UniProtKB/TrEMBL annotation:
The Tat system comprises two distinct complexes: a TatABC complex, containing multiple copies of TatA, TatB and TatC subunits, and a separate TatA complex, containing only TatA subunits. Substrates initially bind to the TatABC complex, which probably triggers association of the separate TatA complex to form the active translocon. The gene is tatC. GO terms for biological process: intracellular protein transmembrane transport; protein transport by the Tat complex. PANTHER family: SEC-INDEPENDENT PROTEIN TRANSLOCASE PROTEIN TATC, SEC-INDEPENDENT PROTEIN TRANSLOCASE PROTEIN TATC, CHLOROPLASTIC-RELATED. This is Sec-independent protein translocase protein TatC. The lineage of its organism: Bacteria, Pseudomonadati, Pseudomonadota, Gammaproteobacteria, Moraxellales.
Length: 253
């Protein structure tokens, strides 16, 4: 019987360890080129609709503003740069599934078969949760926060928000809620790695709830509405991650 070459039975991890660092960098560069190419393609496709996209983004604010007020541009280039910047951010957000897929393709050969089966649901779940967080921020959190600030505005002051300031405010809010909604994934990863277990998380629940309010106090605008709108979802998402963590531990047992 002919002997099977050792290369055919060598584990993928061992093969990767023998690859020179230049090969890894070449593979990474190939994936980065694909990411940049898809992002730029989406950017140029959406570019003719940049003003429409900004109008869609500013709709929650314009609904709250008095009829005598309007948005303003305090910089000469703001009327061009704000929609341009928003268009780039939208292109990156739409390309996020492809970006994560390329990163997954890059690290996939270094994973064991069991890790691959777990990584795919976590990858899909992280994408869905991120988009859910952004949608929650736009449709629920943003109107509530804007309504609060407009309602406490003095009657003698006509609110006129700069388009760049509003864009930065919205992008920060979207990113905060998008990453906050990744809490269940982060909880599951910590349990999978073995850093924590569900029993220890249950014992520390009261401290975690207090921590949710403490963190939201620093990363949201300085008002109680914003803090509650972020802290409560953080707590509920932690509970969701805890439930899935218990299911995972039962399957392991």
């Amino acid at each position: 019987m002919s002997q099977i070459p050792s290369n055919d039975i060598m584990p993928a991890q061992e093969t990767l360890e023998q690859m020179p660092i230049t090969q890894h960098l070449i593979a990474l560069r190939r994936h980065l080129f694909k990411i940049v190419g898809v992002t730029l393609a989406l950017f140029f496709i959406l570019l003719p609709f940049r003003n429409t996209t900004y109008q869609w983004l500013s709709e929650p604010l314009r609904r709250q503003m008095p009829s005598t007020s309007s948005m303003i541009a305090t910089d000469v280039t703001a009327t061009f740069m704000a929609p341009f910047k928003l268009n780039l951010c939208v292109a990156m957000m739409l390309a996020m599934p492809f970006i994560l897929f390329q990163l997954w393709t890059f690290v996939k050969p270094a994973l064991y078969e069991k890790e691959k089966h777990l990584a795919i649901p976590l990858l899909v779940g992280s994408i869905v949760l991120f988009y859910t967080g952004v949608a929650f921020a736009y449709f629920i959190a943003l109107p509530g926060i804007l309504h609060f600030f407009m309602s406490v505005s003095p009657e003698t002051v006509a609110p006129m928000t700069d388009i760049n300031s509003y864009l930065d405010f919205c992008l920060k809010l979207f990113l905060v809620f998008g990453f906050t909604f990744e809490i269940p994934i982060a909880t599951l990863l910590l349990i999978l790695i073995g850093i924590v277990n569900t029993q220890s998380l249950v014992e520390k629940r009261r401290f975690i709830v207090v921590g949710c309010f403490f963190i939201s106090m620093f990363i949201t605008p300085p008002d109680a509405i914003s803090m509650i709108m972020l802290a409560v979802p953080m707590w509920l998402l932690f509970e969701l991650g805890l439930i899935f963590g218990k299911i995972l531990e039962k399957r392991r047992a």
